[in-house]
Structure to design on (414 residues):
């Protein structure tokens, strides 16, 4: 079965929606053409790259991508010129061409060999795709979740990051979230890695007893601080060897963690499966796994208890919707990775709203004033992120003045 046929119910529903709208007149589905696609990088170590699709009738859509070097150049120099003149509502057709670099080839010097399952090219595609969904929702006058098949929930459970027990108590009281993630490297000055036999080593670390004891003590202190009613997760950031990960997971079993995240890199499916099969703690990963093809072996070998696709770099909203459907057949839930501004976080929420197997959504920068200043205000309500059902598209606007002020040199402003 080829990709063209396996587009899933969500894509079929979107196609039917557009066809029906056009049959009722151009006011329901305007005949748009892509005029330009522009991406910017920000100064001051901002991870996000913002993308905007412009049309011949003045309607625009905005997206976001991150964790990449060069995606903004690929959008400005290659993808944007190649898509000029295309109908922005033909999202599936555009994605098909971008995935195979089919009909685009005559219009760009970019060779087919630069595409792939990961890296800056796929991040660029993901950011453009998000902007296209935002634009489509605005053109059709509906929120994005309607175009993805319709919601199964109206509010999205969120988890935040806690540095220690005191921070966990504060976050629980101030935000009413019911889930918190911990990580030893959230406090670099107290980093337990410095107690290792090779103090400067931060990757592929074989934990010794003092290091392991530090991590277990932190987990124990936070569990005691928040009680049994909270979901707690441990972030490992791919730092450990397979055997160290197994030992660590076994030692934190009494604290009933919701998952241990990325104990090793997602490069070896069999090693990840070995860890999962060696402990009662659920194992999660996925922010560095890309497209359905990338997640397939992890699901087939049951190497992960929870998958965490990053929607801004794994292929986009529709691709994540299809990853979720594939994971659902294995009874595996999703907890999407989220290190974005409120704009992309709300875009993620639209996907989370339509998938039955959602566990929760990460919002790393919820309390980061620099990221929050980039968009109009978005707040949690009793620990949940609520969809803006009365707004078309993603439902969150960029603060263009703030983005312009921080746009890096050499880029045209949005």
């Amino acid at each position: 079965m080829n990709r063209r046929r396996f587009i899933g119910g969500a894509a079929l529903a979107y196609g039917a929606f557009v066809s029906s709208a056009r049959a009722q007149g151009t006011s329901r589905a305007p005949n748009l053409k892509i005029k330009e696609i522009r991406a910017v990088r920000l100064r001051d170590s901002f991870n996000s790259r913002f993308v905007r699709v412009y049309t011949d009738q003045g309607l625009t859509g905005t997206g976001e991508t991150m964790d990449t070097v060069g995606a903004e150049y690929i959008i400005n120099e290659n993808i944007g010129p190649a898509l000029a003149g295309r109908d922005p509502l033909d999202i599936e057709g555009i994605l098909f061409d971008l995935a195979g670099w089919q009909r685009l080839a005559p219009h760009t010097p970019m060779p087919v060999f630069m595409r792939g399952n990961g890296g800056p090219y796929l991040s660029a595609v993901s950011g453009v795709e998000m902007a296209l969904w935002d634009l489509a929702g605005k053109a059709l006058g509906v929120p994005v979740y309607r175009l993805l098949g319709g919601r199964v929930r109206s509010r999205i459970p969120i988890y935040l990051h806690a540095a220690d027990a005191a921070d966990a108590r504060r976050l629980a009281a101030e935000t009413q979230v019911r889930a918190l993630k911990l990580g030893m490297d959230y406090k670099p000055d107290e980093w337990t890695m410095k107690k290792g036999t090779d103090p400067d080593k931060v990757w592929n670390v074989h934990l010794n007893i003092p290091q392991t004891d530090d991590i277990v003590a932190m987990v124990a202190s936070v569990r005691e601080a928040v009680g049994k009613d909270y979901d707690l997760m441990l972030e490992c950031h791919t730092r450990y060897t397979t055997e160290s990960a197994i030992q660590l997971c076994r030692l934190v079993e009494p604290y009933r963690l919701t998952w241990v995240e990325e104990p090793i890199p997602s490069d070896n499916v069999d090693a990840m499966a070995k860890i999962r099969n060696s402990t009662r703690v659920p194992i999660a990963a996925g922010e560095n796994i890309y497209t359905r093809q990338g997640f397939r072996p992890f699901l087939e070998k049951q190497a992960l208890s929870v998958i965490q696709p990053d929607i801004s770099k794994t292929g986009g909203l529709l691709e994540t919707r299809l990853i979720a459907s594939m994971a659902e057949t294995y009874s595996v839930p999703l907890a999407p990775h989220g290190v974005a501004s409120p704009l992309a976080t709300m875009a993620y929420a639209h996907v989370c709203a339509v998938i039955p197997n959602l566990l929760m959504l990460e919002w790393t920068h919820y309390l980061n004033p620099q990221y929050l200043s980039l968009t109009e205000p978005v707040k949690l309500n009793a620990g949940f992120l609520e969809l803006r059902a009365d707004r078309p598209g993603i439902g969150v606007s960029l603060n263009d003045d703030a983005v312009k002020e921080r746009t890096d040199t050499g880029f045209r402003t949005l």
